[in-house]
Every structure is written in structure tokens, then in C-alpha cells.
Amino acid sequence: MKKTASYKSYMNSPYVSYKHTTYFDSYDYFFDAYRDKDITFVEIGILDGGSLFMWRDYFGSNARIIGVDLNPEAKKWEKEGFEIYIGSQSDKNFWEEFVNDVGEIDIVLDDGGHTYSQQIITTESLLPHMKDGGLIVVEDTHTSYMKGFGDVSFSFIEYVKEHIDKVNMRFGNFEKDKAERRFWSVEVVESMVAFKINRAASVLKSEPIYNIGSTISAKDFRFVDANALMPVEQIFNNKNPKIEIALEQLENVLANIKINNPDITKRLKNILD
Length: 273
Fold this sequence. Notes:
Blueprint: H1 5-12, H2 23-31, E1 40-44, H3 50-59, E2 64-69, E3 83-86, H4 92-102, E4 105-110, H5 116-126, E5 130-139, H6 156-168, E6 185-189, E7 192-196, H7 199-202, H8 232-235, H9 241-256, H10 262-272
Parallel strand pairs: 1-2, 1-4, 2-3, 4-5
Antiparallel strand pairs: 5-7, 6-7
């Protein structure tokens, strides 16, 4: 594993913090431009406090480090110079009070409870209160593919997919009222999703533009190679994600009503297929 700057700060923390080996490259990729700057950094889910010290070391002494947690015992970290808020990230009222007190935010790192409702409500609540040029990073998004974190039909990754569509609604010929303009881009890496705030770029009118160079009247060949050697259908996973979600919901229903009949289960799955 490469010893990145964030990894070194992680190892320098005097208190324990739980991470994954693949996260540190992502941290440096997303956060490097904010180091040694006068920023407000909010981390949701601080547990044993180790990550608070990690981020102070990483961002430098000019950074304002704020922790959010459900556990009232987390207030003890205030004596170390951190700002600590106790509340539920699923509570929109909590976030309203939070931003009224804290002001605009440069970076949010959501490492909280990882349920879909927590991740989505946090993102929706904080997007309007981010500084221009800011970043919301939601961590441990692999829970969208796991049981026990909510209804998979409304997982955080499904929410992200919907917003990828909305970002592309900014294109000139599409329905502008469906376009997402609260953030400029959404970027996905393993177990993390980052929303970048760039308000000017988000509202820029999308229309064709040409420079004043000369033309050779080149022929448009885009459809000449229409017969791909590999049908595009083969590139996609053969599984239908909607069917997979329905099957998982079915399994949950069967478990709840305590039906333990393989024949019934098989017949119901065949109906869905």
C-alpha cells in the first residue's frame, strides 16, 4: 500500500480509527487541494476520535475541524480543540440548526451510520450550505449492495444514479427543470461518492459553439462503423438490476412471513423473471 499523506496522518493519530486500505488514495485525490487552507471540515461519525486528529494533522492548523456524532460522550473531544455536535444525521431539523450555527462548509465527510436514509438526508440537507468550490464525500457506499441498511430500491447508489441523469439534463436540448444544479459533478470511486460544488459551471447555459478556424468539410463517419464486433448487450451484465432488487425484496417478504417452502419461492421467482 502506498504511504500517502493521508495515510501518514492516519498513522500519526494518537487514537484509534477504522479505515480501509483503499481509502487513502481517494482521500489524497479529493482533499489535497484543501490542505493548509482556512477551511471548515465536517466529519460525521467520529467514534473513538482518532479521525479528528488525523484530519487536523492532514489539513493543518488553519483548518476548523468539526465532528458530528450520536453519542453524547463524543463531546469530550472539545477539550482537544475540536467542535463537536451531537445529533442524528437522519434529522433535517438537526441539520438546520447545525448550519445556522456553523455557517457554510468547505468539506463534508460522511462516515456516519451508512444507512441509505442517513446518507441521502445528510447530502440533501447540506448541499445548499456548501461553499462554492466545496465537496461532499460520502464514505462506505458499498452498503448500498448490502442487507440491513434500508430498502435497496432507495439505496444511496440508486440516488446517485438518478442524479447522474439529472446532471446530464443540463444539456441544451433536454428538460431544464429536471436538471441538477446544486452541484457541478458527481464522482464515484470504490466505496466513496464525491459531489463537487461549482455554482457558476452548474448554471452555465449549454449550447453549441464554434471557433473561427477554417474547415475542410470533413465527412461525418460516425455511423459507418455501426456494426460493432461485440454487441453492446454483451458488455452489460446480463442481470436486470430491477429484477434483482425485486428478488431481494421477495426474499425479505418470505422471511418475514416465515414461508419456508422452496417450491413456492421458486414459482414466485419465475413469475418475476
